[in-house]
Design brief:
This protein has 572 residues and is mostly helical. It is built from 23 helices and two strands.
C-alpha cells in the first residue's frame, strides 16, 4: 500500500497541472467563470456559495498546489521519524484546502471560511512539536491574526449596506462611497495582520517553531501571502489616502526585516525575515498601484522561498536539529547538491540577472524609479534591496564556506534522496519560472525608459550588497563578543526594533497585573467575605445551633411540640 504522502502528492500535482493549463486558456480567451451554489432558501433569503475562476485565481492555485505537492513529498523523509506523520500530512492538506477556499472566493463570507481555516490550522501546525516555546509561538500567531479576523467580520457587516457580500460587483463603482472606504480600511487592517506588517510583525519569526516543511509552505505561498492576495483583489476599492498609509507601513516593514536579518543567527529566522522583507516589497508596489506586478512577484517569490526553506530543512536535518549558522560552515564540501540548490535560490532572492527573482524584482524597482515619488521611498526601496543581498551573502559566508564548527562526529551527506527529489522539483522553476511567467502575464512588455545611472542602479546596489555582506560577516566574527555597544545594537535590530516586546510584554503586562489585583481583592477579598465564605459561616452557625437542639434531651422535643399545638389552636 502506498504511503499517504505519495497519494496526496500525486493528487495535488495533477490538480496543479490542470489548474495551470486552465489559467493559460482563460488568459488567452480573456474569460472568467463565476459559479453560485444555492445552499439554502428561507422565504426570499438565499444562502449560496460562490466561486470565481479567472486566470489570476487559477494561476495562483496551480502554484500553491505545485509547491504543496513538493512539500508533502519532501515531508515523507523529513518527518519519517514522527509517529503521527499521517496527522501531519492531513493538517497540511487542510491548510492547502483553506487556501484554495480563499483564492477562489469572490464573496466575503466564503473568504472568511478560508481565512479562519488558515488561522486555525496554522495554530495546530505551529504547536505541532509540543513544548513551551511552540505553545507561546502558536498563541502569539493565533492572537495576532485574530485582530485581522475581527476586521474582516466587521467588513462583512458593513458590506450588508450593498445588499450582497459579493464584493467584486461593488469595488470600482462604489469607490468614492463612505461605506466602501470603511471596508477598504478594514480589509487593509486584515491584510496587515495576516502578512505580518508593522506593528504585527513579531508573530512571523515566532511561527518558525513549526516543522520546516510547514515553514516552507507558510512562507512561500499560503498563510502570509493571503493578505497580499486579498489586497490584490480589493485594490480597486482602496482610496489614495489608504494607499499612501499602506506604502509607508510596508516600506518600513521591508527596511526593518532586511536590517534584522543581518543580525540574526537562527537559520530559519533569517529566511523568515527575508520573507517579511519580500512581503513588504509586494505590499508597497501594490500601494503604488501596480497590482499585477505585486502578483507577479508573489508567484516568483513563492518558488525560490519554498526551495530556500527546503534546503535549510535539509541542513538542519543533517546537523541533528541545530539551527545556529555559527555551527555550520564548509557545508559545500559535505552537501554539494543541497548547497547548490541553496545558492541558486539565494541568487534568485537577491535578484541576480536571469533567475526568476530578477524578472519581478528588477521590474518592480524600475517601475518605482519611473514613477513620480519622493526620495525617501526611492532610498528605502533600494537600500532594502541592498540589505537583501547583504544577508544572503552573510548566510552563504557562514554556512557554505570556511571551517566546519559542529561536532567532530557527524553524519553530513546528501543521502536524503526523497528530500533531494522534492527540491529538484522546484529548481527548474526557480531558474526558468520568472521568464516563463513574464511571457505569460505580460504579453505586451513593459517599456521602461530611464537614464543610464538609474537603469544600472539595481546592479550597483546588488554589488554593494555583496561587498558589505562579506565585510560585515568578517567584522561580526571578529568583534561580536568584544563590544557591549555592538551587542546592544545587534539585540535591538535582531529583535525587530523591540516589536516582540511590545506585542507580548506590552500587551500582556497590564491585563495580567489587573487580573492579579482582581483575584486578590475580589476573589480572595470582598466577594469571598460577602459571598461563599459568608454563606458558609452562616450555614455552619445555624447548623451548629440546630445540632445542639436536636442532640439535647426529650423535653425540648416535647416543649416544641406543645408550643406548636398552642400555635395551631390560637391562630387556626
Amino acid at each position: 500500500m502506498l504511503p499517504i504522502c505519495f497519494i496526496y502528492f500525486v493528487v495535488l500535482l495533477f490538480f496543479s497541472i490542470l489548474s495551470f493549463f486552465f489559467s493559460i486558456y482563460f488568459m488567452i480567451i480573456d474569460y472568467s467563470v463565476m459559479i453560485e451554489f444555492e445552499i439554502l432558501s428561507l422565504n426570499s433569503n438565499l444562502i449560496f456559495m460562490s466561486v470565481l475562476f479567472d486566470w489570476m485565481s487559477l494561476l495562483f492555485m496551480s502554484f500553491v498546489l505545485y509547491i504543496s505537492s513538493m512539500v508533502i513529498f519532501y515531508s515523507h523523509e523529513y518527518m519519517s521519524g514522527d509517529l503521527n506523520i499521517n496527522r501531519f500530512i492531513l493538517l497540511v492538506f487542510m491548510f492547502v484546502a483553506s487556501m484554495m477556499f480563499l483564492i477562489i472566493s469572490p464573496n466575503l463570507i466564503s473568504i472568511l471560511l478560508g481565512w479562519d481555516g488558515l488561522g486555525l490550522v496554522s495554530y495546530c501546525l505551529v504547536i505541532y512539536y509540543q513544548n513551551v516555546k511552540s505553545y507561546n509561538a502558536g498563541m502569539l500567531t493565533a492572537l495576532s491574526n485574530r485582530i485581522g479576523d475581527v476586521a474582516l467580520l466587521i467588513s462583512i457587516s458593513w458590506m450588508l449596506n450593498y445588499g450582497s457580500w459579493n464584493y467584486i460587483y461593488y469595488l470600482d463603482i462604489m469607490k468614492s462611497d463612505f461605506s466602501m472606504k470603511i471596508i477598504g480600511l478594514l480589509v487593509v487592517l486584515a491584510a496587515l495582520t495576516k502578512s505580518a506588517q508593522i506593528p504585527f510583525s513579531s508573530w512571523l519569526p515566532a511561527a518558525m517553531a513549526a516543522p520546516t516543511p510547514v515553514s516552507s509552505l507558510v512562507h512561500s505561498s499560503t498563510l502570509v501571502t493571503a493578505g497580499v492576495y486579498l489586497l490584490i483583489r480589493f485594490n480597486f476599492a482602496l482610496s489614495d489616502e489608504v494607499m499612501l498609509f499602506l506604502l509607508f507601513i510596508s516600506s518600513m516593514t521591508m527596511f526593518m526585516a532586511g536590517l534584522g536579518a543581518n543580525y540574526e543567527f537562527d537559520l530559519k529566522k533569517i529566511i523568515a525575515l527575508s520573507t517579511l522583507s519580500q512581503l513588504g516589497l509586494m505590499m508597497s508596489i501594490l500601494a503604488l498601484g501596480s497590482y499585477s506586478l505585486a502578483f507577479f512577484h508573489l508567484l516568483t517569490h513563492a518558488l525560490f522561498k519554498a526551495l530556500l526553506f527546503m534546503c535549510a530543512g535539509c541542513m538542519i536535518h543533517n546537523l541533528g536539529n541545530c539551527q545556529d549558522i555559527r555551527y555550520m560552515g564548509g557545508l559545500i564540501n559535505q552537501m554539494p547538491l543541497t548547497c547548490c540548490f541553496l545558492n541558486i535560490s539565494n541568487f534568485s532572492l537577491c535578484g541576480l540577472p536571469f533567475l526568476s527573482g530578477f524578472y519581478s524584482k528588477d521590474l518592480v524597482l524600475e517601475v518605482l524609479s519611473m514613477s513620480y515619488l519622493n526620495l525617501f521611498i526611492y532610498f528605502i526601496f533600494y537600500f532594502s534591496t541592498g540589505l537583501t543581498v547583504c544577508y544572503s551573502v552573510r548566510l552563504s559566508y557562514y554556512t557554505l564556506f570556511g571551517d566546519f564548527n559542529y561536532s567532530c562526529l557527524h553524519h553530513l551527506s546528501d543521502t536524503g534522496f526523497v528530500m533531494l527529489k522534492g527540491m529538484a522539483g522546484l529548481i527548474f522553476l526557480v531558474v526558468f519560472g520568472g521568464s516563463m511567467l513574464m511571457w505569460i502575464m505580460f504579453p505586451t512588455p513593459y517599456f521602461i525608459c530611464l537614464p543610464d545611472l538609474m537603469k544600472m542602479m539595481v546592479l550597483v546596489v546588488i554589488l554593494f550588497g555583496i561587498l558589505f555582506g562579506y565585510e560585515f560577516s568578517k567584522f561580526m566574527i571578529n568583534y561580536q563578543l568584544k563590544s557591549i555597544r555592538f551587542l546592544t545594537s545587534s539585540l535591538f535590530f535582531s529583535s525587530m526594533w523591540n516589536l516582540p516586546y511590545l506585542s507580548t510584554f506590552g500587551v500582556n503586562y497590564y491585563p495580567i497585573s489587573l487580573g492579579g489585583i482582581y483575584y486578590k481583592e475580589f476573589d480572595h477579598g470582598w466577594s469571598e467575605f460577602f459571598g461563599s465564605q459568608n454563606i458558609y459561616n452562616n450555614m455552619k452557625a445555624s447548623s451548629w445551633f440546630l445540632n445542639a437542639l436536636f442532640n439535647n434531651n426529650l423535653k425540648i422535643y416535647l416543649s416544641l411540640f406543645v408550643i406548636w399545638i398552642f400555635y395551631l389552636v390560637i391562630f387556626l
